[in-house]
Each structure stands twice: as C-alpha cells, then as structure tokens.
Design goal:
By secondary structure, the protein is of the alpha+beta class. The protein has one domain. Helix content is 24%, strand content 27%. The chain contains 2 helices and 7 strands; from the N terminus they run αββββαβββ. The strands form 2 sheets. It has a 4-stranded antiparallel beta sheet. A hairpin with a 6-residue loop joins strand 1 and strand 2. The longest helix has 15 residues. The relative contact order is 0.09. The mean pLDDT is 82.
Length: 123
C-alpha cells in the first residue's frame, strides 16, 4: 500500500492506515463487484455475451436455457430450466447477499404485466 498524499508522519513496519470510506462507496466498486459476479457465473458454466457483457447464458445438455441480465445491482433470471434456476438461486445466496423479489414487475422503467397467455410490456 502507498501512503496517501500529504501524510507526513514517520512510518515503521507496524504502521496501519485507517480506512475512512467503505470500499462500496468508491467509484470502482460496481466494476469490482461485477468482475467477481462474472467469475462466479463462469465457474457455474454461464457464458458472457459478446454483444452485451451484462447478459450471461447457460444451456443444459437437454438444450434448456437459463439467462441472466444484470443492471447495476439488479439481476433478472429467465429461462425454461427451472432446476437450473433453483440451483442458481442457492449458489448466489452462498456467494452474495441477495433478495428474491419474485416475478418481474418493473425493470429499467419498463412495466411487465403477467397473463396466462404471456406478458405485456409497457413503458
């Protein structure tokens, strides 16, 4: 670690600097979190999209798909592999502090209404 500019005290081998700002308040923290999140998802077999790095996809042997879309600290999980979604939720809970909010209702200013025949999206 380098001492901060303006520090004029003498240092010894036992010198300690007190952190006054939490790491999650730093500008780099979202990038660091997303880097850690991506590494965990890749270990689970997800692949990051080349067109949108916030989209991760995993296909099962039976060709079922599970997709994640990340925006800041919100994650949408979709797909037809319900077992994989269950495993994913358990694995995320072990590695991150998460809240499961249920069916998608609003995301990025878009309202999602669920019906028997499908969904309706409006802005």
């Amino acid at each position: 670690m380098e001492l901060p500019p303006g520090y004029d005290g003498k240092t010894t081998a036992n010198t300690v600097c007190k952190l006054k700002m939490a790491l999650n308040e730093l500008k780099q923290s979202p990038r660091a979190w997303f880097g850690r999140f991506t590494k965990v998802m890749i270990v689970l077999g997800f692949k990051q999209s080349q067109g949108d790095h916030t989209q991760l996809t995993k296909r099962s042997k039976s060709r079922e798909v599970t997709m994640l879309l990340v925006y800041v600290d919100d994650i949408i999980v979709i797909g037809d592999d319900e077992d994989e979604q269950q495993r994913l939720g358990q694995h995320l809970a072990k590695n991150f502090e998460i809240k499961t909010l249920g069916k998608l209702e609003y995301f990025f200013g878009i309202e999602v209404a669920h019906f028997k025949k499908g969904i309706f999206i409006s802005q």
